[in-house]
Amino acid sequence: MKNAQLESHLEKLLLAMLYGTTLLVLPYTVSDPINLPKMVALVGVAGALAGLLLFNAKGLITKSHKPILISSTLFIIYLLIVLARSGVAFSENLYGTAGRNTGVATYASFTVVALGCVLIASELFIRKVFASFLVIGIFLLIYGIFQYLGFEPFPYINTYESNVFGTFGNPNFQSSFMGMLAVLAAAFILKNSLKMPLRIAALFLVVGSLVGVHLTNSIQGFFNFALGFSFIVFFYLISTGRKILARIVGVLLLLGTLSIVAAFLKLGPLAEILYKGSMSARVYYWETAIRIAFDHPFFGVGMDQYVDWLRVYRTPEQVATNLTADSAHNIYLDVLSSGGFPLFLLFCSFTALTIISIIRVSKRDELPSGNYFALVGLWVAYQAQSLISISQIGVAVWGWVFSGLLIGYEINTRGGGGKETNKELFSKTKTKRTQDKRSPIHPKLVVVTSAGLALGLAVALPPFVSAQHYYNAFKTSDARVIKEAAFLKPYNRNSFMQVAGILRSNKFDKDALDVAKEAIIRFPNSFAMWKVLADMSAAGSQDQVDAIQRLHELDPNNPAYAQP
User: Fold this and answer.
1) How far apart are CA 37 and CA 41, in angstroms?
2) Alpha carbons 542 and 377: distance in angstroms, whole number
3) How many CB atoms lie under 10 A from the CB of residue 453?
4) Do residues 171 and 215 lie in contact, with contact meaning Cβ atoms separated by under 8 Å?
5) In angstroms, rounded to a whole number, what is the distance separating the alpha carbons of residues 412 and 391?
6) How far, CA to CA in Å, does 367 sit from each of 122, 237, 430, 562?
7) What is the model's pLDDT at position 427?
8) What are the tens digits of pLDDT across the range 423-456?
9) Could you tell me how far CA 30 lies from the centroid of its own chain?
10) CA dist 389 → 149, 220, 337, 489 (Å)
11) 240 contact partners, CB below 8 Å, separation of at least 6
12) What distance in Å separates the CA atoms of residue 268 and residue 230, rounded to the nearest whole number?
């Protein structure tokens, strides 16, 4: 089987996965119509990718790929160790908490996706990824405008100030994606080879994307656009021989970055601007994640379990503000608190390899195309978002793809000792793919892809099927059916809590208490569930005494649960 045919197959799977994980939502079907479908698309396709990589990639893998292969393998292995050793509910560790779904399965799938991109990265594939990003981004921009105008077609329950959240369920993620779309469009404006009408269209897209950011009422998109576009300008000045201007921009970037870091430490001229409101809350979340990690250095507290530990570390002053969160609002620190320092260091190795790849390519005698620098800008923009926000599958998958492409591009364009130009490599790849299209699909490709997809879906579908049955149970209005829905596997803490509340509000007190007691067995660290149990237990009963004692342990500095 020719490698060209395998590469073509990988490309199609990766592009299909990007559309699915970004755009797929399934209203009227499951209790979580946004994150669960995205996880199923990601894990299912990642299974197919893993099948191809494990059984067919011998010819693709070279000695140059060893660092990323080792990092990827160790990262997945340690994820499995965390799954086995963290001591929390297996289902939540594997799938993540409901509404986020960034558990072991998701992070392992991200890793497989990045590795697939590493192995097939090329100028041609980067163009295809950009084309997909533009199509998806323009769709989300238009959809966001419709949402702003009040034409949302689906009955989402929105808890945010802005109704503009695209297919992500949260305006911050829509804002971030619009910011990255603006970065890509701005990069096209700087391409001298692009015809003037297309450059004007790119300018309109930049303006439209930034308007899209504004409509979300979230500044994250402006933040990642500013940083991503600044790096593109920096590389553009280098590529056009304007070294003095490039140095000036480089110094300004360094000073700006240091000023932002200082601001979070309450230092420097930007401190008063940034260190307030949600940003000051984020610093509190970051500090808590670090404290969690130092108390659980080897295996963390489990994937997506930050929500159960924030209160444990609150000071009396922080209790008074009543700030809570289900994430550290920094992807690196989320990984650190979830899996401990070993997982964190392995996660950072992907970033380190990406940075090394960028440096190596920028030092070559022949600078790469403008598309490469646009890719760098997109990666930087995503990193900016990842430092102040959480990992949402539909956005995060792009960050892993950008990393994989940057690492793979550096490796895959080393051929010929640097004798082949970027244009020659692009032409050769394109010719090879054209010839490959005429060949019939090798049967082995079909078998391993189908087997991998089946395995991926077998892992991803259980919570989806459970959520579908749970959603349908409420249509019956039958208390018995609704109660049974709370016990659907894999167990979901939100289901227990919702069902207990509904049963209690409809005077099924005994049934509600049964559900609450079962929930604390399955999720003994859930403050919210113990609170439900305390509220519905008879005053002075042993159940209430035990619940208040446990609430004190989970929120020790809260005077409401102080022990005599």
Assistant:
1) 6
2) 59
3) 19
4) no
5) 29
6) 15, 12, 20, 64
7) 47
8) 544 444 555 555 555 556 677 788 888 999 999 9
9) 21
10) 26, 8, 15, 30
11) none
12) 21
Average pLDDT over every residue of 386-411: 95
End-to-end CA distance of the chain: give it in Å, rounded: 74
8 A C-beta contact, residue 411 and residue 118:
yes
Q: Identify whether the C-beta of residue 184 lies closer than 8 Å to the C-beta of residue 194.
A: no
Q: How far is CA 249 from CA 41, 198, 258, in A?
A: 41, 27, 14
Q: Which of 154, 152, 164, 170 is nearest to 30 (CA)?
A: 154
Where do the H-state alpha helices sit in 217-330? 220-239, 243-264, 271-274, 277-295, 316-321
Q: Scan for tokens 């490796």, then name that residue.
A: 411
pLDDT digits (tens, 9 = 90+) for 79-124: 999 999 877 888 999 999 988 899 999 999 999 999 999 999 999 9
- pLDDT at residue 420, rounded to an integer: 43
Mean pLDDT, all residues of the chain: 87
Biggest CA–CA distance in the chain, Å, is: 81
Instruction: State the Cα–Cα distance between residues 42 and 14, nearest whole angstrom.
Output: 10
Quick check: 541 and 294 in contact, CB under 8 A?
no
Q: What is the token pair recorded at 269? A: 């001229």
Peptide bond into 67 cis (omega under 30): no
Name which of 50-59, 102-111, 491-500 the model is least confident about: 50-59
Q: How wide is the angle at C-alpha 311 spanned by C-alphas 308 and 315, nearest 5°?
A: 160
Is residue 40 a contact partner of residue 460, using CB atoms and an 8 Å limit?
yes
- The tokens for 380 are 């930087």
Buried b (16+ CB within 10 A) or exposed e, 468-507: bebbebeeeeebeebbebbbbeebbbbbbbbbbbbbbeee
Tokens of 180: 């990255």
Q: Helix/strand/coil (H, E, C) string of 320-387?
A: HHCCCCCCCCCHHHHHHHHHHHHHHHHHHHHHHHHHHHHHHHHCCCCCCCHHHHHHHHHHHHHHHHHC
* Distance of alpha carbon 24 from alpha carbon 20, whole angstroms: 5
Give the tokens for residue 186: 């701005």
| Eight-state DSSP code of residue 440 | P
Tokens of 482: 């609704």
Task: Give the distance, in angstroms, between the CA of residue 482 and the centroid of all CA atoms in the same chain.
Answer: 32
Tens digit of pLDDT for each residue in 324-349?
Answer: 888 999 999 999 999 999 999 999 99
List C-alpha distances in Å: 129 to 107, 304, 365, 376, 402: 21, 29, 26, 13, 9
Tokens encoding 429: 């790849």
